[in-house]
Amino acid sequence: MSAIRQTSETGQLLAAGYEWAELYPPTRLLMWVSVAGGFFLFAVYNVDQNVQIARLSFVGALALWFAALMIYLFWLYRSRSLIFTIEGAMLTPHGLPGLWRRFEIEGNHSEITSIELMLDEENSDETNKNYRVAVYSQFGNIIRVSAPLHHDDAYRVQTQLKTALKDMREAIQKAKAFQSDGRGGSAPRPSGRAVIPGLPDLPDPR
């Protein structure tokens, strides 16, 4: 989980957002299948009298358990992010839940009225409640930008996205103020340009 900020060489904020990790159900299922398959082969190894089959079962069990470990370490979670740009775009470099090839939300982030938590009833019970982070627009649209998350994780994503949107709106207002003053841009300030994987190169608004 990390905040995203991209600036121009003059210090103008070009993009702000947040990236977080979500549990990926297909890889979780594959992990548990590998674990169960490993126990099955280990049981065959313990009861089968054929030496060759027993050896193959033992090797197979170790291979499946190793695969489950690799899934747990490297593939159990996937990245998700939402980025607001100075041009008003809402970018989703890792897609949206259920729409993994949708890399941008239609509209302008000036249309956002709130970013809220929604109880995900389908993936919740009395003891384990999960929430989605949703973006509400002034036109009544609700865009769920996260998969079901634990409340603490969902709240962190919500807070970070609200902060990113606030920072971007303030940057836009400052840019408009400088333009109205006839200066054409912000005063130069030392600043490096952040390189954000998955984020297109944005123009320097000078």
Summarize it.
The chain folds into two domains: 114 residues, no CATH class; 50 residues. The protein is built from three helices and nine strands. About 5% of the residues have low confidence.
Residue share in helix: 25-40%
Strand content: 15-25%
Which structural class best describes the helix and strand composition? alpha+beta
Give the termini distance in whole angstroms: 31 Å
Task: Give the total of beta strands.
Answer: 9
Q: How many helical stretches?
A: 3
Give the CA-based shape. Answer: elongated
Give the topology string: H per helix, E per strand: EEHHEEEEEEEH
Average predicted local confidence, pLDDT: 83
Number of domains: 2
Q: Mind summarizing the main beta sheet?
A: 5 strands, antiparallel
| Strand ordering within the main sheet | 1-2-3-4-5
Explain this structure.
The structure is a single chain. The protein has 206 residues and is of the alpha+beta class. It has two domains: 2-22 and 88-180, no CATH class; 26-75. The chain has helices at residues 25-47, 51-75, 151-180; strands at residues 2-7, 13-23, 77-85, 90-91, 104-105, 112-119, 130-137, 142-144, 149-150. The strands form two sheets. A five-stranded antiparallel β-sheet has the order 1-2-3-4-5. Strands 6, 7, 8 and 9 form a four-stranded antiparallel β-sheet that branches. Strand 7 and strand 8 (142-144) form a beta hairpin. Helix 1 (25-47) packs antiparallel against helix 2.
